[in-house]
Amino acid sequence: MQEKSSNPAFRNMEQVIGAQQQAAPSTEVLDQMYNQPSYTAPERERFLTVDDVVTKTAIILVLAVAAGFATAWFQAYALAIPAMIIGLVLSLVIIFKRNINPALIIGYAVAEGVLLGAISGWFNTIYPGIAAQAIVGTLGVFGGMLVVYKTGAIRVTPRLTKMIIGGIIGVAVLMLFNLVMSLFGINIGLRDGGALAIVFSLVCIALAAFSFLLDFDSIDLAIKQGAPAKTSWYFAFALMVTLVWLYLEILRLLGYMRQ
C-alpha cells in the first residue's frame, strides 16, 4: 500500500476516488444512455488523464490570479480576513465531502486569490516588486519539482514519504506553538526576520517543494487506478493548497531578505 501524501487534500483521495467510482452516472451520461438504442451498451464515464488535471489546475489558478490582482489593484486589504475564513471553510468542506463539487473548488480558488492579493499588495507597498519575485519563485519551484519527478531524479519511496510527512507535522507543531506564545507576548524567533526565522522559512519552502513529489505521485496512481475524469477538479484543488503554502513562505522569506 502506498504512503499517503503530506498534502491534507490528497490524504483523503482514496475515499474521494472510491466515492466517484461508485457514484451514479452524471446527467450527461444518463442523457446519452436514454438516447441510445436499446441494443447499444451505455457509454461509461471517461477516465482521468494528465491533461484533465493540467486544464483544471490552470482554470483555478487563472481565477485566483485574477481575484488577487483585482484585490491588490483596488487595495481592498480589508477583505483578507473574510477571504481567509471563507477559504478555510470551503477547503474543509471540499476535503471531507466525498462528492466533488467544481463550484466549491472555484469558490476556494477565488477566496485564496483575494487573500493572497491582499497580502501581496501589502508586502508590495513596503517592498516594491516583491510580489512578482514571489510569483516567479513559486512557479520556478513548481516547474523544477515537476522536472525532477518526471526525470526520476528523486524517486518517491515510502521512506521519503515518511520523512516529508514527519517534517510537515513538526513544522505545523512549531507554527502552532509560535502562535500560542505570541498571544502571550513571547517571541521565540520563528517569524521575526532573524537568522532562525530565515532558516525556518527555508525549511518550510523545502518541505512544500518536496510535497509536490508526493502530490504528483498520487495523481499518477489515480490515473493508473482508472479514476473518473471529474476527480481532476479535486487534484487541481489539492495542488493549489501546496502552491498557496509555497507562495506565502517564499514571500515571507523575500521580506526577511529585504529588511
Defining traits:
73% helix, globular, mainly alpha, 0% strand, 9 helices, 259 residues
Shape assignment: globular
* SS-based class: mainly alpha
Radius of gyration: 20 Å
Q: What is the N-to-C succession of helices and strands? A: HHHHHHHHH
Number of helices: 9
Tally the beta strands: 0
The largest pleated sheet is described as: none
Low-confidence sequence ranges: none
How many separate structural domains? 1
Separation of the first and last Cα atoms? 47 Å
Approximate helicity band: over 70%
Mean pLDDT: 88
As a percent range, the share of strand residues is under 5%
Give your account of this protein's structure.
The chain has 259 residues and is an all-alpha fold. The chain has one domain. Helices cover 73% and strands 0% of the residues. It contains nine helices and no strands. It has helices at residues 13-22, 27-35, 50-73, 80-96, 102-126, 130-151, 158-183, 195-224, 232-258. Helix 4 packs antiparallel against helix 5. The longest helix is centred in the last third of the chain and has 30 residues, at 195-224. The protein is globular. The protein starts with 12 loop residues before the first helix and ends with a helix. The model has no long low-confidence stretch (mean pLDDT 88).
